[in-house]
Amino acid sequence: MNRRIRKFTEIAKRLLSTSSLLAGEDVHLLINPLSGGFRRCRTHRRMMRKLRRLPDSNPSRLVQSGSFIGNRSEIDSANEIGGKGGGRSPKLHFHETNSPNEACNLALKIVRTSAQSRDERLRLMILLGGDGFHRDVCSVLIRQVPHLLQNFILFRMPMGTGNDSADARTLEEALRILNTARSTKKDSIIEIETNTNAIYHACNTVCFGLDAFVCLLTNKMKKLIPSTSVYRFFADVAVLFYELFYPLKEWIITIFNSDACIEKRRGRYLLNIFGRRGHTTYGGGMKVLPGRENYLLAQPQSLLEKLRLKPLFYRGAHRHLPTMEFFLCDRVEMNYDGSILMALDGEVVPLRIEDFPLMIKKIPDALTILN
Q: How many CB atoms lie within 10 A of CB 242?
């Protein structure tokens, strides 16, 4: 096992050993060793310092150390989780995965094996990584074993350079949830189907054009500098020069709520962003969908307007600008007159003209997560 991961597991075992939720249970932790929390020395040292400050000698203080507000889904479950372990320590299984395929295959194996058990034991899998790792694993589970996920709990810990799809905003908050959670809730996932029958998934947002271009530049550079400041730097640069490389072309967009069409739009757009819900961030905390609406279209901007717009996005203060249109919707059908980049939780996919029209929709209640 990777030396940094071994140090993390030693502390994690102590911090989770007193969890009444996990007591006596088999809990599998899938680890992405390339995530920012493990790959970079400075990031790992900072993470370990925070963990060591958490009082493993008096774990109750972990619960009392402060209130927290995690990522919220639309529907809470009434299913209560009782501690059935009688004070026993949880059986924690740490799996260091070496590739996305290995992680996905392992997750499938764990879910299928757990489903064969007829007992009432807690079925929980913890994913330790960033947005891309969470998306890869959740996507393969939705594709191949959706019927098994209703009684299987996932928990996405924020261990990457981007953690907008995680079920907690910080590592400390994640540990508090694992020590105190007593119920589950349902969470949505986004599905994209192209005209060529290709299917993609996203746990947080899907965006087209400018933001996908920013993600493309960021992904190239974060291998050297894994920091959210990299995203902000390229967001500042790309917003000025994007249209020189990718001139805006016409979109034809139909927006649906349930089965009814609620809006139609036709035109050129600087931003086109769909989230699994409102009150959503991306790019390491940028408040792109600051209200309850989950879909944003932004009109083209002049250079001066773009310069004024950037800091507003970081704070979520762009909501009432006349050039921004927000919608609360379940699905969107899109057609585009050309090729364009699409970003799924930070992973960039090039789309060709034959991929359109495409359909984006929320799959409600697809995942069960800790409340």
A: 19
Per-residue model confidence as pLDDT tens digits over 288-326: 999 999 999 999 988 888 878 878 888 999 999 999 999
For residues 326 and 263, the answer to whether their CB atoms sit within 8 Å is: no
Q: Contacts from 107-114 at CB under 8 Å and sequence distance 24+?
A: 107/30, 107/137, 107/140, 107/141, 108/140, 108/141, 108/144, 108/145, 110/28, 111/141, 111/145, 111/148, 111/149, 111/152, 112/145, 112/148, 114/152
Residues 11-20 have a mean pLDDT of 86
- 111 by DSSP, 3-state: which? helix
Tell me, yes or no, if the pTM score tops 0.90: no
43 Cβ partners below 8 Å, 6+ apart?
A: 36, 37, 226
At 75-126, the pLDDT tens digits run: 344 456 655 545 578 889 999 999 999 999 999 999 999 888 766 677 899 9
Range 3-181 has CATH code 1.10.287? no
pLDDT (average), residues 56-68 = 42
Domain boundaries for CATH 3.40.50 within the chain: 3-181
Query: What does the chain come to in residues?
Result: 371
- For 192-363, which CATH class? mainly beta
Cα separation, 108 vs 126, in Å, equals: 13
Do 357 and 335 contact (CB within 8 A), yes or no?
A: yes
CATH 2.60.200.40 residue window(s) in the chain:
192-363
SS3 at position 76: strand
β-bridge partners, 267: 251
Long-range CB contacts for residues 168-176, cutoff 8 Å, separation at least 24? 168/68, 168/70, 168/71, 169/68, 169/69, 169/70, 169/71, 171/37, 171/47, 171/50, 171/51, 172/50, 172/54, 172/65, 173/68, 173/70, 175/15, 175/16, 175/54, 175/62, 176/62, 176/63, 176/65, 176/68
